[in-house]
Amino acid sequence: MSDRSAIEWTDATWNPVTGCTKVSPGCAHCYAETFAERFRGVPGHPYEQGFDLRFWPERLAIPLLWDKPRRVFVNSMSDLFHEAIPDEYIRRVFDVMAAASQHQFQVLTKRHERLGQLASNLPWPENVWMGVSIENDRWVERADFLRRVPASVRFVSAEPLLGPLPHLSLDGLDWLIAGGESGPGRRPAQAEWFRDLRDRCHAAGVAFFFKQWGGRFPKASGRELDGEIWSEYPDPRARLLVPETALPGLIGTVDRLLPEVDPSFVA
C-alpha cells in the first residue's frame, strides 16, 4: 500500500485486503504473489502470512485522509471480488470510495460472475472505475458481465496479454490497458496483438493505454508501440450516481472509520 505507485496507469494503491488465489492462466506468474511470498514467516511483516487472504479493516479509511486527489488502484495485492471476501466488507470498501469523492478509484477483478451478482447492491458514484482482466480470448466473457455494471468508467486490463482478443467487443467500454508479461517464466506477447487492440480502440472511441512490453523486469523493454507512448485516459460518464438515500450511510461510514485508521498511513 502506498500513496504513490510505480504502476503507470495509477497514482497510488490501497489494499484493504491482501492475498488471493488463482482462477485463470493470467494468474500463473502473479507479481503480487511472488512479492508477498518472499516474506512468508517473517515475524511482524505485513506479508508474514505470505499471499494468504487477509483483511485489513484498519486501512479502510486511509483514502479519506488523503487530501490531494489521485487515481487509486484498489487491491493491487488482491481481488476485491474474491469469493472469500464477505459481501458486507466489499460494501464497506465501496462506501469509502463514494465518501472519498476527491479521488478516482480503479477496481480490477477476474471474478466477473461475483461482480455481476453484487453490482446491483453497491453504490456506483462517478469516481469509481470498474475493470476486468482479460488475458486471452477464452476470457472475453468477463467484459460481458462488466457491461452490465453502471460504473462511470468500464475498462479492460489485457495484461498479461497471452494471445489475440478477436472476440472482444469494445461496445460499452471506455478504456483498455494492454501489456506483456514480466518476470521469470514470462510468456512473450506479439506486437500484432497490441496493434490490433490499439487500432480497434481508436476506431471505437475507446481510450488505449499501452503499459509495457514485459521482460525480465516490468520496464525492461519500455513502453513504445510503433515509436509512440500510448497513455490515453477515459472521460467518466455519469451512468448512475449514488442515490440520495445512500448518503446518510456514507456519512456514518466516515465517522465510524476515521478513529480506526493507522496514522502512519496518512499522507
Question: Could you explain the architecture of this structure?
Answer:
There is one protein chain. The chain is of the alpha/beta class and 267 residues long. It has one domain. It contains six helices and eleven strands. It has helices at 31-37, 87-99, 112-118, 141-146, 191-204, 247-257, and strands at 12-14, 17-18, 54-55, 71-74, 104-109, 128-133, 153-158, 175-179, 207-212, 224-225, 228-229. The strands form three sheets. The protein has a seven-stranded parallel beta sheet with strand order 1-4-5-6-7-8-9. It is globular, with a radius of gyration of 18 Å. The N and C termini lie close together (12 Å).
Features:
single chain; 267 residues; alpha/beta; seven-stranded parallel beta sheet; 6 helices
**SS field, number of helical segments:** 6
Please give the radius of gyration in angstroms: 18 Å
Largest sheet: 7 strands, parallel
Strand order in the sheet with the most strands? 1-4-5-6-7-8-9
Q: How big a fraction of the residues is strand?
A: 15-25%
Average pLDDT works out at 90
Q: What's the helical proportion of residues?
A: 10-25%
Structural class: alpha/beta
Task: Give the CA-CA distance, first to last residue.
Answer: 12 Å
Number of domains: 1
Low-confidence stretches: 241-249
Reading the helices and strands in chain order gives EEHEEHEHEHEEHEEEH
Give the overall silhouette. Answer: globular
Beta-strand segment tally: 11
Question: Summarize this, please?
Answer:
This protein has 6 helices and 11 strands. The protein has helices at 31-37, 87-99, 112-118, 141-146, 191-204, 247-257; strands at 12-14, 17-18, 54-55, 71-74, 104-109, 128-133, 153-158, 175-179, 207-212, 224-225, 228-229.
